[in-house]
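=== Structure Prediction Worksheet ===
Name of assembly: unnamed complex
Input type: mixed (protein and possibly other molecules)
Chain count: two
Listed entries:
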Amino acid sequence: MSSTEGPPLSAYRRREQSITLSPLEDHPDGAHADVTEELLTLNFGPHHPATHGVLRLLVTLQGEVVRDIKPIIGYVHTGIEKTAEDKAYWKVIPVVERMDYLSYYFNAMAYCGAVERLMEVEVPKRGQYLRVIHLELNRIASHLIWLGTSALDLGAVSIFLYCLRERELILDLFEMSSGARMHTRYFQVGGVIEDIPPGFPAKVREFLKIMPKRADEYGAILNSNEILLQRLRGTCPLDSETLLGLGVSGPLLRAAGNPWDLRKADPYSSYDDFDFKIPVGTVGDNYDRFAVRLAEIYESVKIIGQALDGLPEGPHITEDRKVALPPRHELATSMEALIHHFKLVTEGFRVPPGEVYNPIESPRGELGCYVRSDGSSKPARVHMRDPSFVNLQALAHMARGSYIADMVATVAMLDPILGGIDR
Amino acid sequence: MPDATGLELLAKDLGGAALETVYFREQATILIDPAEIRPVLRALRDRGFSFLASVHGVDHYPEEPRLGVVYELLDMRRVDRVAVKLRVGIDAPEVDSVTAEWPTANHQEREIYDMFGVVFRDHPDLRRILMPEDYEGHPQRRDFPVGGEPVIFTRDERKWLEARE
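=== Predicted Assembly ===
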């Protein structure tokens, strides 16, 4: 980039536009003698359909080969972590849900889990199972959006419509259990806000019957799409060692053959009660990333089925009236319930001082919530270690030295959610 | 998690770098001397805590030293976590960057710089990451007001521009 006209660049701009060239022997065709020596800086995004949100990439190209990528983020920064410090603990749940807007149940789970750990609240077994059912439904919904939009980037248009069709079924289930399709506020500190309505398990089972068949269809369509396969197979691989150094977790790490999954390794919310497998890839290229996520849909279906079969009776939220709202009918008869209700709604509960980090496995990797309490009824610090934010750093390492078309495929397989990246 | 005894042993191995250990809610935290961050992370890496899961900032306002940086380490083989924490004062918030050896810290250190104003020495690319480049202040500090930001609508854009001049 040489600009001779206009005002001089600020130090910030100079660093933003500085480039770290990858070695040329990485040229995908091996023959780099005839490659033009001229470098081209291309601004990619923030408003580009292939960036899956308002992601901006400064891409340095040599011919069609990517030599460097600088991601520029912050376009949808909404200051949610700051907002959370100004709200009572239970009022933080709806705002954190809006961070990673495709996996809202996971955000709520990470946050509620952290607060429960601070307060040493035990979630009843039924509450844990209901959480698992919703988390896994949400994982499927998130993967469906990823699959549909990614396939769209790679030239397979119809699959997008099929994926949204199945996602609609999941959103209907969310509406049935919580009244809202997205950002449901269903998880509360201590359990879930309401028990599931009658008829919900039957509806979920209906969905579980449909979903594997539909996933088979997606696999059949995409795995016989020669264009898509050529764009995925062998493109932009990265080994497990480098990925670990970059802090990458989730399906991207599993695609490289590392079977790390917090649901198995460090089970929370009764995940150890269920029998499921962790799909892993072999070489860690874009095809493996695609295949691992598609296989995860089947495993989630299995988990939901087992959770429904084994759904225990009992309370769905902790009976501790200092933490959870009393049932509605008690308010008319019990003075104590009314006092608890009033205290919780006006001030909220107080949390003992301390700090915890609560990691869970989101559809994109390790989603950790760090909460620091100073003893008041509002958190002193809420931080989300969002997997999209950390995984984005791997993009330059994956795509350097490949063609720009492969970079588009890699962004799609990275599954970045800008709401989670910018928070 | 290492248990309370395991944490003490770990801290003893670190020698003088470890100032304090906190075992809270089955989570282990070692408070260390800010100058020793690289040797400490290296020593812990040799003990298996090789995955740097998260780096984040925290403001202890009004306690001194105010700013904190937390490094969440993970041992994937033994499934064990330990947090390393350091505290720096607001007047000279400088910490050594660990990006050279833990590339995952790159964006996360930039976020801490952006939000808390902690300067990471030897960071390859230390600039704001989420806030605009001309933004003043560090919004996640506890004494930074909420709602202090003027919302500029089209109808009074001119008025704001004039007020700035």
